[in-house]
TrEMBL record:
This is Prevent-host-death family protein. The lineage of its organism: Bacteria, Pseudomonadati, Pseudomonadota, Betaproteobacteria, Burkholderiales. It comes from the Bacteria. Residues 63-93 are annotated as: Disordered. Residues 70-93 have a biased composition (Polar residues).
Amino acid sequence: MIEVGVREFKAHLSTYLQRVSAGVAMVVTSHGKHIARIEPPAAALEPKDALAMLEELPWLRLGSGGKPQGTRNPSSLRAGTPSLAQTISELRD
């Protein structure tokens, strides 16, 4: 990692940015103090890779899209009243 002063960095900005794009990280200093760190960007994940990472999480269940289906065993608060899932579904229609 290289250190460069603010004035030097500003005067030769395109040269330093080329070095960063080639993989060199640098620290910009002002009066000997670190004020910024500049590094090449991390490789961005493709959307397919991100989805695969999510699918591997044991506590996450990916949906199929569309409206939620509600619970398998709906329960009512009182006999004869619709379940909360049914009420929400009716409000969405």
